[in-house]
Amino acid sequence: MVKLRLKRCGRKQPVYRIVAIDVRSRREGRDLRKVGFYDPIKNQTCLNVPAILYFLEKGAQPTRTVYDILRKAEFFKEKKEI
């Protein structure tokens, strides 16, 4: 099963990539694809919407944190309009 979850990149300041990754992999493990970026300090989000839609259609489950990030970015409102 595939999940959309956060992968930490920053050393001193937390910066995360949103990745599609196999459930059995660890947090810093090899990801299938990078689908976004999240900076909690600057409150910036960059999403690859077609890639996220692709993985969600294939059955990928976002973690609770990634779901909240997508909801704040109004991702699901865009999805309903399409």
Description:
The structure is a single chain. This protein has about 80 residues and is α+β, with helices and mostly antiparallel strands. The protein has one domain: 2-Layer Sandwich (S16 Ribosomal Protein, Chain: A), CATH 3.30.1320. The protein is about 30% helix and about 35% strand. The chain has a five-stranded mixed sheet. It starts with a strand and ends with a helix. It comes from Deschampsia cespitosa (Tufted hairgrass). Belongs to the bacterial ribosomal protein bS16 family.
What is the secondary structure topology, with strand pairs?
Elements: E1 2-8, E2 16-22, E3 33-39, E4 44-47, H1 49-57, E5 61-62, H2 64-72, H3 75-81
Parallel strand pairs: 1-5
Antiparallel strand pairs: 1-2, 2-3, 3-4
Descriptive keywords:
S16 Ribosomal Protein, Chain: A; ribonucleoprotein; ribosomal protein; single chain; plastid; 5 strands; 3 helices; 5-stranded mixed sheet; 30S ribosomal protein S16, chloroplastic; 33% strand; 82 residues; Ribosomal_bS16; 30% helix; alpha+beta
Round the mean pLDDT to the nearest integer and report it. 89
Structural class, from secondary structure content? Answer: alpha+beta
Share of helix, binned: 25-40%
CATH architecture name: 2-Layer Sandwich
CATH fold-level assignment: S16 Ribosomal Protein, Chain: A
Biggest β-sheet: strands ordered side by side in the sheet: 4-3-2-1-5
Spatial shape: globular
CATH superfamily: Ribosomal protein S16
What's the main sheet like?
Answer: 5 strands, mixed
Q: Report, as a whole number of angstroms, the end-to-end distance.
A: 26 Å
Spans of 5+ residues with little confidence (pLDDT < 50)? none
Question: How many DSSP E strands?
Answer: 5
CATH top-level class: Alpha Beta
Count of helix runs? 3
